[in-house]
Amino acid sequence: MASTRILVPVVLFVASCGFAVGQQGQRNAAAPFSVGGSVSSAPQGSSGGLGQEHFQVAPDLKQALSLRVPQEFLREHLGDYRFQNPNIFLKALLHPTYKTRDRKDRHDSFEPLDYVGSFVMDYIVSRYVLMNARNKSQHHMAEAKASVLRQDSLAYFAVKNNFHKYVFVDRPVEKASLREFAEGLRNVQALGDLKYAKKKRSFVYKFFKSVMGAIFVDSGYSSDVVEPILLKMIKRDLDLLL
């Protein structure tokens, strides 16, 4: 009876997080994730596939905006990940208002990779919580997951890993907002102390998601590649919640 009480909330949590049920081959065919192994064929939109232009900066726009890959950011905060297609990474860092006059009405930005990052982070965090939570109740695991995936939490992780220094933003209002938010987090050393920050929200959380989405797409839709990079940034705070 006791084992049944533990098992039921675990099953409910798995279902709520969208884990696929069935054979491994069916999971790979149904969702664009490579988990625990390789996938024989990447989904459309992965490296070299159809639709990838949706996830990358066009070469002519890259030239017009003089975009350059921030190698220091890759080396120091993204595990020295080597992008097969750097234009995907550049798109992940591009604010829609950057160098508006040079765009010729082209509003390319990080946004397509933002929602991709949301999906892959939800999956990785859900799996980590399920595997490592000491309390397997549905409420506890859902709370832990939500705590690290909130907008203010992702903005905190972004600033602590210097995302705000490398995004392509040039309008004074956005630049001032980033500086103010980062300054307010200077003395905040843990996610639990975020409530004491002067400013608790910033649009920089969107870039945290888009960069994770960029790595996911560039790696051939492999959550196994994204997982160690993401967990390096959030694991300490996530473990305190488990």
Automatic annotation (TrEMBL):
GO molecular function annotation: deoxyribonuclease I activity; ribonuclease III activity; RNA binding
InterPro entries recorded: RNase_III_dom, RNase_III_sf
RNase III domain mapped to chain residues: 81-220
SMART domains (alphabetical): RIBOc
GO cellular component: cytoplasm; nucleus; RISC-loading complex
Key words of the record: Hydrolase, Signal
A GO BP entry: pre-miRNA processing
Segment forming the signal sequence: 1-22
Top-level lineage group: Eukaryota
PANTHER family: DICER-RELATED (PTHR14950), ENDORIBONUCLEASE DICER (PTHR14950:SF37)
Protein name according to UniProt: RNase III domain-containing protein
Species of provenance: Amblyomma americanum
